[in-house]
């Protein structure tokens, strides 16, 4: 086997390496037969090695074939109360878009405090006032929960200055979606709440998570667009 051929096979990772090993094991076995070597243990050793590598190659090709045929899942349902689902990334901006804040204190409060205290995570909270009575009532509920959440973190000794920013979008249609942009195990992800699944106390019955780069990038662009035209609320006004 020529060097350029070997390098070509190596581009396929473990499957390519296994294929190369099969080739050399076969060549070695052929040489043993040609030399009429009667050492049965040597034949057994090479034969066993060849069989093992063949099994590895078969498994690898089967796995790759299945992965190619299976549609890539864009969304995963997660338990919104589970702190592990929200990651333990370091040094990123945790963006909350139209969040209901129902789980922010009791279920996820400790996780959020540790994000700020230990992991150097900063928070950006973006709320929407809405443009009808029903939406404004919902906004007021969420805004009060946010204030309660911030007061809770302050009371627990969490440094908020320079770590938390709050902005409100005025006179804009209230979004039907709430989402969060964060990092999980070094990867940028988004977590979604659907408004119809959020209860009156602001707690969502279910949540969905995606690692899809295009989706995350699109949501981040959407967040930035509204964030830039939103009205900033000074932190000191929210802690009284």
* Main sheet: strand order: 1-7-6-5-2-3-4-8
Q: How many individual helices?
A: 7
Radius of gyration: 28 Å
Shape: elongated
Return the CATH architecture of the largest domain. Answer: 2-Layer Sandwich
User: Please, what is the CATH homologous superfamily of the largest domain?
Assistant: Endonuclease Chain A
CATH topology of the largest domain: the name is: Endonuclease, Chain A
Helical content (DSSP H or I, runs of 4+): 40-55%
* Number of separate structural domains: 2
Q: Major β-sheet, in short?
A: 8 strands, mixed
Tally of extended strands?
A: 8
Structural category is alpha+beta
Spans of at least 5 consecutive residues with low confidence: none
Quaternary structure type: single chain
Average of per-residue pLDDT values: 84
Please, could you describe this protein's structure?
- It is a single chain.
- This protein is α+β, with helices and mostly antiparallel strands and 240 residues long.
- The protein has two domains: 3-69; 76-238, Endonuclease, Chain A (2-Layer Sandwich), CATH 3.30.870.10.
- Helices cover 48% and strands 18% of the residues.
- The protein is built from seven helices and eight strands, in the order H-H-H-E-E-H-E-H-E-E-E-E-H-E-H.
- An eight-stranded mixed β-sheet has the order 1-7-6-5-2-3-4-8, with helices on both faces.
- Helix 4 (109-119) links the parallel strand 2 and strand 3 (122-128).
- Helix 1 (3-10) crosses helix 2 and helix 2 runs antiparallel to helix 3 (40-69).
- The longest helix is centred in the N-terminal third of the chain and has 30 residues, at 40-69.
- It is elongated.
- The termini are far apart.
- 21% of the residues are buried.
- The mean pLDDT is 84.
